[in-house]
Design goal:
Helix content: 40-55%
Low-confidence stretches: none
Number of helices: 8
Order of helices and strands: EHEHEHEHEHEHHHE
Strand content: 5-15%
Number of strands: 7
Length: 257
Amino acid sequence: MTPTSTLAGKRVLVTGGSRGIGAAIVRRLASQGAAVAVNYRSDQGVADELVGELRDNGCAASAFPADISDAAQAHELVGAVVSEFGGLDLLVSNAGVEHFGALESITQADFDRLFQTNVAGQLFVTQAAVAAMTGGGRIVLSSSVSVRLAVYHHALYAASKAAISAMVRNLAPELAARNIAINAIAPGATATRMTEYAPHYIHPALTDVPFDTLLRSMSALGRLAQPDEIAAVVAFLLSPDASYITGTTIEADGGWN
């Protein structure tokens, strides 16, 4: 991995950064010269392995444990990053949880888990990051293409992600006064998580249709996204090239319809 100067000198926190899309984002930002704080919730071994890989390639990285669904831990996380890195310039809020379930099966515990992590977690880590960004900055939160699609048994998850798109739209003018831009990315079906949840995307009337056939019919590109493709969009939103973009949710969905 040969760092470039695109994000040289920038200090970035990536929540949920140890695996999947988060790990792809971490690798991409590190390759562009950023010092990366890799947040993880429970699997320290995976996070340490990723950090070791980055350091072996000459990149600056450290791992930080925290469950961002807890507001206090979210603030402590940002404090720990600032203490080690000397400040914070960029935030990628990637940590989140998935849910599929029929209306009658949804419980209060399901609701609390989804909204505490996907909404409150993103709100409070943003709150902490903004307080630490003394010289301006850029923030990318995680929404989903599910916000505009009717996906079977996906109402609770989609509602939590719709809150994020509303959040960035409404925080944009407030944060602009501090020279901070905030946007969200809305990934489509991505190889890392879709493998686990693919059966839930299939309506009962389509159970006999091969999943690859459904992909070709539902997506202009006819395939799942690769994590690196999502990471590339996040890197763009954090870069100087996105200087006139704020309050927006960028869809990276391969033409999903």
